[in-house]
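Quick one: Permease from Cellulomonas iranensis, structure tokens please.
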Amino acid sequence: MTAVLTALGTMAAVVALGWALGRWHVLGERAAPVLARVVFAVATPALLLSTVAHADLHLLVSRTAAATWASTALVAATAALVLRVVWRRPAADVTVGTLASSYVNAGNIGLPLAVYLLDDPVAVVPTLLFQLLVLAPVAFTVLDAHAARERAGQDDAARDGAVDAPDRGTTGTGAVPADPVPARLRAAAVARRTLTNPIILATLAGLALAALPWSAPETLYEPFRLVGAAAAPLALVTFGLSLAAPRGTGGRAPRRDLALAVALRAAVHPLVAWGVGTALGLPAPALLAVVAMAALPTAQNVLVYAMRYRHGEALARDAGLVSTVLCVPVLLVVAATLG
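--- reply ---
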């Protein structure tokens, strides 16, 4: 327990440093987004490449990965079913609510947690891969399709205002015209966005190096190790900077949606991960890693996606804030129980 408190205390101290730097504008107004880009595009890929290249390739087909993917999929499916089937939310709001419930902050919090608490940066890889290769592409597909339908509806409404009713279209039904962006092009855009992600590229490169029948010279990895060593502390500083940033007004999140997202994020997901991991017979260290990753708060990326598509912004913002506050006691319980 002392080691757990030390790890969490270290992380809290670095986050507090980032908050102080942001509160007194020591690094300037643009520090948070700039550091976030450095962490995302440079430091984290370097760390993952150098660590995954030395990892066991069974990672992708291990019980640990299966427990992570299965528990995350169950939580995402639960959120989607409740929001869509029970509460009849629009598709875009369902997508953002599902992400708020299942897409965790694996970068700013998960990576440092894997480094300082679990002593294994590779522990975050199954979570990152599932989010970047499954959750994000599915979400982009739904949101892009919804945005295309909205644009088509707006264009149709504009035409209706400019012409008489008998001249609407060729069918005379007034139906919304075909989607102006073919599904093939949307799928290609999603695939391109996913496969050009620096974290995905670095992980795939690391896996390719690990699969080589011979070992690459260690000097090849030293620059990546040096740069990658900055990933965890910079991620924590960036997180602290984001906490110091003023909160936008943006309205209030629907209470039921927020309660669902926070409950799934802070309580249900860790419990489901523990149940799946136990059923799969994971050893204690692996079970701790799976449950700790499941206990992470909602990722800030969800708010970025919501702002990009202009749906569910208040829910993404409030879910991130509340789940971040709750993650510390939840992680303490997880560590005390399984550590």
